[in-house]
Amino acid sequence: MAKQTETFLHSVEKMFDQAADLVGVSDDLRHKIKVANSTYTVRFGVRLRNKLFTFTGYRSVHSEHREPVKGGIRYSPHADQNEVEALAALMTYKCALVEAPFGGSKGALVIDPNEWEEHELERITRRFTQELAKRSLISPAQNVPAPDMGTGEREMSWMADEYKRLYPSEINGWGCVTGKPVSKGGIRGRVEATGRGIQYALREAFRHPKDIEWAGLSGTLKGKRVVVQGLGNVGYHAAQFLSQEDESIIVGVMERDGAVVDLEGIDIDGLHKHVHDNGGVKGFKGYTPDSDSVLTMDCDIFIPAAMEGVITENNADSIRAKVIIEAANGPITFTANEMLRQRQCLIIPDLYANAGGVTVSYFEWVKNLSHIRFGRMQRREHERQTLNMVEAIEEMVGSKFPANHLEKIIEGPTELDLVRSGLDDVMREGYQVISQKWASDSRIPDLRTAAMMIALERIQDSYDSLGI
Ligand code: NAD
Q1: What's the gap in Å between 254 CA and the centre of ligand 1?
Q2: Ligand 1 atom at minimal distance to the Cα of residue 150
Q3: What is the pLDDT of residue 4?
Q4: Of 26, 243, 455, 467, whose Cβ has the fewest other Cβ atoms within 10 Å?
Q5: Domain shared by 94 and 226, yes or no
Q6: Distance, CA 29 to ligand 1 centroid (Å)?
Q7: Res 3 pLDDT > 60
Q8: pLDDT-derived band of residue 408, with 50, 70 and 90 as boundaries?
Q9: What is the pLDDT of residue 464?
Q10: Residues spanned by the domain of 49
Q11: What residue owns the CA closest to ligand 1's atom 16?
Q12: Are 371 and 226 in the same domain?
């Protein structure tokens, strides 16, 4: 890959400036919002394999205009302060855009999880949690991490358990992290939430024919050719839902060790199992080591779901997708974004597109604070009322509801139903507001600027009401 000239943080800041100019944010407030409030670097030792290993971790708090602050923790050998600060800033804008009542934060541990055994990772994660806890950088009231690249339910469960050991009398202790397994205070639907959010976002975009036609597409998601980069948590779920529920055709999947191409549609579950069993896509039907050719292949929708900075000024001209939905954070640099816009590629921006994760994390945090699962109080009452209504209708019309429909009609919502409903609502409304904003003023060049403007307007309001 050619050398990148724009850092992730520079790209985020340029996008911010473009939106701040249009909103008319004053210079002093602009500076206050733009910079990270604090970034903590920790170096801690863990004795493993008869040796003392020193690990470096970060937790950046971008903005505390709302508390707690929220954002994932990634495990990556390439993580650094610049990246963590860019990701924390994006979290502030993302939460404001989808009205999740949090400030922005992000964390990272510089580690390649593949190099460590599970029991070693557990000890490292628990030590990292202790360091964060000492500085209130993990706390249900102040700072609530979540999974990101290289972390998942397992790591969140270790973190929550360590926090509970440190603060046994904290009644809301489970709310110190989100993305936990359901058995440890998690919520149904969180694992797949970001991928599900990508599906809902695309569905809503296709309910806006003007936007889709601008990019040269029409119709629905059915039959659309999709390329996905990264078959991890987000990429796998997005690809699975789009192919199984919307009849989109996944024609290409890129992974670390190459790519898979099948114009008839890749068996996503089969490929996912193959990656799990073999550590990569090599050996699967349609394998090619040439990922770059897949990045630039002809397709309708491209879903970068791996990492930042994959589309830069060096390759933007060769991308042929008509729509790009940023499932990863920051996959398109500022300059590449400009180049793609010139040729009417519709970019659905990260700060909206991948907000499904933080949205369902918000639901999980509320569940932890309320100590009751969603739907517990209402479900049977809903069934009772609906059954009464059904019986009254049957009596009036003198015939019975068809038995195969009756069960579905009276069934009250489960926690998963409610999570999906809430997520769908957030993703639909999110797209509607950014699309309307884009259409409202010819100076607004794209959905990304529109999304950033809405986020900034809300953050500005919040600072105004704080009196700062
Ligand atoms: P993950 O670790 O589960 O998956 C990442 C996948 O990308 C892995 O399968 C990895 O092998 C692959 N990959 C890494 N480098 C690659 C490369 N150069 N080319 C192709 N594939 C490569 O991570 P994830 O949780 O799915 O996160 C992916 C992206 O989505 C990140 O940018 C993350 O910040 C963002 N995101 C995640 C969530 C979430 O809920 N997990 C929420 C919002 C945003």
Answers
A1: 12
A2: 2
A3: 52
A4: 467
A5: no
A6: 33
A7: no
A8: confident
A9: 81
A10: 39-184
A11: 256
A12: yes
Domain membership of residue 386 (yes or no) is: no
Question: 244 with 341, same domain?
Answer: yes
Q: Which atom of ligand 1 is nearest to the CA of 331?
A: 32
Whether residue 30 lies inside any domain: the answer is no
CA distance 218 to 323: 12
Q: What is the torsion angle, in degrees rounded to the nearest 10, for the CA atoms of residue 91, residue 95, residue 97 and residue 100?
A: 170
Do both 176 and 296 map to the same domain?
no
End residue of a domain, out of 145, 162, 184: 184
Q: Domain for residue 117, yes or no?
A: yes
92-110 confidence digits (pLDDT tens): 999 999 999 999 999 999 9
Query: Measuring from atom 30 of ligand 1, which residue has the nearest CA?
Result: 328
Both 52 and 161 in a single domain?
yes
Q: What is the CATH number of the domain that holds 77?
A: 3.40.50.10860
Determine the average pLDDT of the residues in 351-363. Answer: 97
76 plus 220 within the same structural domain = no
Active-site residues, by number, are 106
Q: What pairing do the DSSP bridges indicate for beta strands 301-304 and 225-229?
A: parallel
Ligand 1 and 233: CB distance under 6 A: yes
Both 259 and 145 in one domain: the answer is no
Residue 306 CB less than 6 A away from ligand 1: yes
What one-character-per-residue DSSP string does 84-104 give? Answer: HHHHHHHHHHHHHHTT-S-EE
Domain boundary among 155, 184, 213: 184
% of the chain at pLDDT higher than 90: 92
Q: Is the pLDDT of residue 468 over 70?
A: no
| pLDDT at residue 402 is higher than 90 | no
For residue 350, how far is its CA from the centre of ligand 1 (angstroms)?
A: 13
Determine how β-strand 249-255 pairs with β-strand 225-229: parallel
Ligand 1 in reach of 148 Cβ (< 6 A): yes
Query: What average pLDDT does range 272-301 have in this prediction?
Result: 97
* Cα distances (angstroms) measured from residue 463 to each of 65, 144, 362: 7, 21, 22
Q: Kindly report the protein residue whose alpha carbon is nearest to atom 42 of ligand 1.
A: 357
Beta strands in 137-246 (DSSP E): 143-147, 225-229
Cβ(288)–Cβ(316) below 8 Å: no
- Report CA(238)–ligand 1 centroid distance (Å): 12
229 Cβ inside 6 Å of ligand 1: yes
| Residue 1 pLDDT > 60 | no
Q: Using the mean position of ligand 1's atoms as its centre, give its distance from the Cα of residue 7 in Å.
A: 18
Total domains in the chain come to 2
- The separation between CA 165 and the C-alpha centre of its own chain, rounded to angstroms, equals 29
In the prediction, which pLDDT does 467 show?
67
Atom of ligand 1 nearest to the CA of 147: 41
Q: Give the atom of ligand 1 at the shortest distance from the alpha carbon of 232.
A: 4
pLDDT digits (tens, 9 = 90+) for 184-228: 999 999 999 999 999 999 999 999 999 999 999 999 999 999 999
Dist. CA 283–CA 172, nearest whole Å: 47
Determine whether the shortest distance from the Cβ of 329 to ligand 1 is under 6 A. yes
Q: What tens digit of pLDDT does each residue of 110-145 get? A: 999 999 999 999 999 999 999 999 999 999 999 999
Residue 251 lies in a domain: yes
CA 263/CA 299 separation, integer angstroms: 10
